[in-house]
Design a protein that fits this description.
This is SET domain-containing protein. Helices cover 41% and strands 16% of the residues. By secondary structure, the protein is α+β, with helices and mostly antiparallel strands. The strands form five sheets. Strands 10-11-12-13 form a four-stranded mixed beta sheet, covered by helices on one side. The C terminus is likely disordered.
Length: 449
């Protein structure tokens, strides 16, 4: 850590230490107003800086490590994060081959990645995730993680490294590196021309990547100094010595995406969103017919909830139906534009009221099943002790129970103002952050243990 501090901060005006948010955080050692940290592009890791670094390293192995791994691991559609992961795996292979002498900074950072505790699902065992899939088959992000783990690519990569260079790179170490890179990347501007044109790169920024996320208490932000091509961390207001530096990873906090990527649920004051699979996943009279209607009309199968947090607690929630007309099938069988154009206000209110009651019955069912799964997680004998999926289950229990409590309190019904105490019909700025829908009759093969 001292090596990283020396490289990235002239006077070591920052330090890394335990955070009240959990894990480690970045702190200022003295009163600061303005620039906190300045990091040269050559001390960051993007696919471009990694390419330049790989050219400098004398890799006389046969076949060449980086080139071979890129061909083996990145042979699908281009993905910036995946390529960056491949570079970091390649650098670790070179280190184990003794090829990184003189690259102390890189070796120090590889240690950081390999020792970082990650709370996301990449460290959970497949049988546990498969059991969750049985509980919640419509969660597209969890499904993607499970499919990636089931693909066997980590074990294939470990075997490829062993057979090609006679180096032992354990599967759990590869998984750790993958999870660490994904959880620590930032989107950093890069100047691409003299005309003030910029691109955004997925980048690992040592030291800066210890800064935690908190949208309500954010006191710093990072930007590019176009004159020097350096990444600069700046205070939004004067900070006293010992203050933790808090930045924003994203302005809109989609809770499932935050957990899958970073391994935590933000509980700072303010609004957050979460998508819950519904159409095609809750079975009731006409459910199959309505699920088919939603699919044909290309409406989301997910219902999005806007959550309000205060003092770390979920204090309120709303069903966000802005630009979501999946409920139109409850009014009539015609296409959505026709239904919504011809429907009366009473019909729309009636359909929304029916939807709220359906969600209530669905969540009541989910509470019991989620509680059973939480107990299963407690009893499950995980080899390495990671049961991060339990965080997801506990979050959903909190969501379900809050909704049920609110339904009991306000009893929303058609024609009453209380209906819109639970339904949000404005707020189009949230819509683009909805998760991809998973239509449950478009099945996929799931491996079983």
């Amino acid at each position: 850590m001292e090596a990283l501090l020396a490289v990235n901060s002239v006077d070591s005006g920052v330090s890394v230490g335990p955070s009240q948010l959990g894990g480690l955080g970045l702190f200022v050692n003295k009163d600061i107003d303005g620039e906190i940290l300045r990091i040269g592009r050559e001390h960051t890791y993007s696919i471009y800086t990694c390419l330049e670094l790989s050219k400098k390293i004398k890799d006389q192995t046969e076949p060449p490590v980086i080139k071979s791994l890129l061909g083996f691991y990145c042979n699908g559609p281009p993905n910036e994060t995946r390529i960056l992961i491949c570079y970091m795996i390649g650098f670790e292979v070179l280190r184990r081959l003794g090829k990184l002498e003189g690259y102390k900074e890189l070796q120090q950072y590889l240690n950081v990645l390999l020792r970082t505790e990650i709370g996301n699902l990449w460290q959970d065992e497949e049988p546990l995730l498969e059991s969750y899939y049985e509980l919640e088959p419509g969660n597209s992000l969890v499904n993607a993680t499970l499919l990636e783990k089931q693909s066997g690519e980590v074990s294939e990569l470990s075997r490829f490294i062993s057979e090609t260079w006679r180096v032992t790179f354990e599967e759990h170490a590869i998984q750790q590196l993958v999870a660490a890179v994904r959880s620590r990347t930032l989107e950093v501007p890069r100047k691409v021309s003299d005309d003030d044109d910029f691109s955004v790169d997925v980048t690992l920024v040592p030291l800066l990547d210890f800064a935690n996320h908190d949208n309500s208490k954010q006191n710093a932000y990072f930007d590019l100094d176009p004159k020097t091509d350096e990444i600069v961390l700046l205070a939004k207001r004067p900070l006293s010595g010992g203050s933790e530096v808090l930045i924003s990873y994203t302005p809109v906090e989609e809770m499932t995406r935050m957990f899958i990527t970073y391994g935590f649920y933000p509980r700072s004051d303010g609004l957050k969103v979460v998508d819950v699979p519904f159409w095609g996943y809750h079975h009731f009279d006409r459910s199959e017919e309505l699920a088919q209607y939603v699919f044909q009309q290309r409406q989301p199968t997910n219902l999005q909830f806007v959550l309000e947090y205060a003092d770390g607690q979920l204090v309120d929630l709303f069903l966000n139906m802005a630009s979501n007309y999946s409920f139109a099938g409850l009014i009539g069988p015609d296409d959505v534009p026709t239904v919504m154009e011809n429907a009366s206000e009473e019909q729309i209110d009636g359909a929304l009221s029916t939807l709220l009651e359906l969600v209530e019955s669905y969540f009541a069912e989910r509470v019991e099943r989620a509680q059973e799964f939480a107990k299963f997680c407690d009893d499950y004998e995980a080899e390495n002790g990671t049961k991060n999926i339990r965080q997801l289950v506990q979050f959903h229990l909190e969501l379900y129970n809050k909704y049920l409590d609110k339904m009991r309190q306000i009893a929303p019904r058609a024609g009453s103002e209380s209906l819109y105490d639970l339904v949000m019909v404005d707020g189009d700025d949230w819509v683009e952050h909805r998760l991809p829908p998973v239509y449950n009759f478009l099945t996929r093969e799931l491996a079983r243990h």
